[in-house]
Amino acid sequence: MKIRLVRNIVVALALVIVSFGIGYRLGLGGLNNQSFFSSVKIINQTGGKTSDVDFSRFWEVWNRLNRYYIDKKALDPQKMVFGAISGMVSAVGDPYTVFLPPDQNKEAKEDLGGKFQGIGAQLGVKDKKIVVIAPLKGEPAETAGLKPGDWIMKVDGKETMNWTLPEAVSKIRGEKGSKVMLTILHKDASSSADISVIRDEIKVPSVEWEAKKIPSSCWQGGKCEEVKEECGNCDLVFYIKLTRFGDQTSDEWTKAVTEINDKINSLSKSKVKGLVLDLRNNPGGYLMGSVFIASEFLNDGIVVSQEYASGQKQNYDVDRSGTLLTIPMVVLINKGSASASEIVAGALRDRKRAKLVGETTFGKGSIQEAQEMSDGSGIHITTAKWLTPSGKWVNSTGLEPDFSVSQDEAKPDTDFQLEKAIEVLLK
Questions:
Q1: Over the stretch 139-173, which tens digit does the pLDDT of each residue have?
Q2: For 135, which of 26, 141, 208, 329 could close a Cys bridge (C-beta 3.0–4.6 Å)?
Q3: Has 339 been annotated as catalytic?
Q4: Could you say which of 104, 337, 368, 377 is catalytic?
Q5: The PDZ domain covers which part of the protein (predicted)?
Q6: Is 364 marked active-site?
Q7: Fold of 204-426
Q8: Catalytic: 368?
Q9: 339, 341, 366, 377: which is the annotated catalytic residue?
Q10: pLDDT in tens, 227-264
Q11: Could you name the CATH architecture of 115-202?
Q12: Of 2, 335, 364, 420, which is the active-site residue?
């Protein structure tokens, strides 16, 4: 779930090569490596740079594993190298800076493509715990009872504490029809529960919309509830649900907005009362996707700023001519709204374009760059933090709504947050 996968830099020399290059030069002085070289052939050791690091310990541990470990079949050299690289990357202490072996890297790209096999849930890391950011509507995770904020304590009996996000995804995903047992601690629950989930093929459109019919009496203090049947005396509020900022989102968004504008143009302007953009349970995606979406509603100016370790800032401004620049709007958010969705919500509020309704967002304020290796593996590196147009950094704290509304779990068929959003629009 990374908010910047804009530059797919193909790096010719994998970190595997760097590690072996350093180890070969620095390890020879402290350890006889004959046992290592007798079992593994180093096929490439170019690209490493001399560094003041005692790398002999790596070879010492490697050799002792090969010499003493009871199950020699379990000693897969490639997996051990990938594990060593993962350990090196995780040592920086950032859950979003991760190394992904080829299979996990493929899964990460499938996420943003919108088609994969699994349980249908977006996951995150909070306080070193694997948590559910958002179960996808109608998919196995939601059907099984997973909710935003759930802590996944175990996967098939294995403790998840300190797992990286790719580790969790790789363990939870699997072939359609297979089962995975999750030990879950629901938010505010005192005890955990085991939930069996049957995996399926997950196909998720990122953009959906509808025109909601609202009785005109809402303006005079009546209830602002959607009318399902035909209603000649109703006003319209357009509703757009955006589930992620992925590979197909720009095309899906453009199609949806074209249809919305066609509908608006066919109506009396007095009938169109506003628009609700629903970013609830949207875990993010591409940084430039957030700029693209925000640009639909803003004339010009800053959408988001990147700030690097040096203190240097890079502003991302409105990058196109939007078509929904004047329609009144409200944005729905909750604790499952993260990263790119927080960028859009923060920009629209800071620029006085929209009010926020719902719950405080997740609070992911960092930007990752995805770099792909020649063998199909990848590394996601946190390169900057992002700031709203007013300079706010949302990391860990999130965005607080202008109108705080909790969703009553005892009444799942009533969307109180959406009702409040429509009320804010119409009153």
A1: 999 999 999 999 999 999 999 999 988 899 989 99
A2: 141
A3: yes
A4: 368
A5: 97-173
A6: yes
A7: 2-enoyl-CoA Hydratase; Chain A, domain 1 (3.90.226)
A8: yes
A9: 339
A10: 777 777 788 999 999 999 999 999 999 999 999 999 99
A11: Roll (2.30)
A12: 364
